[in-house]
Every structure is written in C-alpha cells, then in structure tokens.
Amino acid sequence: DGAAPSEPRASLLWRLAELRRARLGQTDEAVRLYGELLTEGGRSLGPLNDSAELVALARREAALGLHTARASVAPTPADRALALLDRALLLLERGRSGEAEHDVKRALDLDPRNIACVAALERLYEGSARWVELAHELRQRAAGLPPEPAARLWFGAGRASERTGDRVAAREAYRRAMSLDPALPEPIASLGALAARDGDWNEVATLLESEAALVGPSARKGRLLAELAAVHGERLGNPQRGIELVEAAAALLPEEPRLLDL
Fold first, then answer.
1. Is 184 helix (H, G, I), strand (E, B) or coil?
2. Which region, left, alpha or beta, applies to residue 2 given φ > 0 means left and ψ of -120 to 50 means alpha?
3. Alpha-carbon distance 131 to 128, whole Å?
4. pTM surpassing 0.70?
5. Quick one: pLDDT at residue 129?
6. What angle do CA 129, 132, 135 make, to 5 degrees?
7. For residue range 218-252, what is the model confidence (pLDDT) as tens digits?
C-alpha cells in the first residue's frame, strides 16, 4: 500500500546495509539492502534531485551507484552528508569537480558540524586561486549557525586564509572558532603552528596547554605534553618545567621509554 516501513525495520535495514558496506566490504549486498529500504518507502529526507547525467553515471559505475543509493535512503541529515562526501571524493577522482563541489556543499548544508566537509572543500580548491572565495563563503555560512557548527566553518575559513598568505585573517578566524567552541582542538593547533612560525614560544606553550587540557589520559595527551616539554626546555629556558612535563608525558607513553632521555 506504499506505507513507510516501521521505524524498527527501517533502522534495521539501514544498520545491516552499513555493516555490509563499511565493515564487511559486501557492497553488492549493501546496495540490495539500500534498494529494499527504498522500495519500502524509506526515503525520509526526500529525493536527491541529481542531474540526469549524474543519475546515468551512477547507474553505470558501481561505486557511485553505491553511495547514491546510500545517500537516497540515509535516515538522518548527518548520514546523508557522509554518503554525499564519499560520493564527492569519487566524483573528484573522475575529474568531475563541479558535481563533487555540489555534493560537498550539500553535505555542509546537511551537517555543518562535520569538519570532514571543510577538508573535502580544501581538496576541491587545491591548485586553484579560489581560496579567498572559499574563506568568504565559509564565513558567510557560519553567520547563521549555532556556535558549535559555526566554529567548524570559522576553522575552515582560517585554513583558507592561510592558503592566501593572509595570516592576520587566519588568526582572526581561528580565534573566532575557539571562542565559539573552546573544546574544538583544530583551531588551537593551527594557532599554535602560526605562533611557532613567528617564534612566539610563550603563545605556543599557552596553546599547547589549552589543547592538552581538552584531552583525557591518552597517548595523544602524552605527545602534546612531550611537545610542551620541548618548548619549555628548549625555547623558554625553563628546564625544570620541561622535566615535569616529560615525566607526565612518559606516564602516558609507556611504549616510548626513551622519552625520559629528552
């Protein structure tokens, strides 16, 4: 009768299809399950509205067809965004940069919290003279968003500004991202890299401390503390603080016994 499948069945079909695709590499079976979900009315986000040319291409090429089917029946905006990002990368590999850019921007509209969208846009703009355009567009998109997703777009704007050589604009964008989402590590790390290039080691130390504070006990925290130890010991003339940080880092990096030799 064309009624949508019950939520438990729709969710089960989606989870099974994603398991087959992502974990087991059984793409044919995943496509079959996506198709079953589509047949039963499982397209809660509406049609993709792809161009006729892209529809035809997806029918001819299995990999594109897989992600097209996946995007068509994705149950949430975030799931559809991921599928469109994967399809965009395939389109880019085939030299279809216009369609790839369209998919990435649709993904960004669907899930502006996904920082992978920013990375994909950077790949699309690589080798072009459009970094100023990208920085401007990301700033505009950020203006109407809540703080958390806006922070990711401000980070992307900073990355684009760095590509133009405008480090003042890059710093401004990174600091805006930090103010909107203090728990986002990427802009902190990028500001630290800029400060290191400028030889502002006090600022580097401050930013490394901020980044380390965001991370729970882990190897990553250990590496950040080791880096901070090197800054204090080699750049700031504070060997005692450096030793304390090395000891803290070593406790988190037991597989690296030579760390205490620093």
1. coil
2. left
3. 7
4. yes
5. 78
6. 130
7. 999 999 999 999 999 999 999 999 999 999 999 99
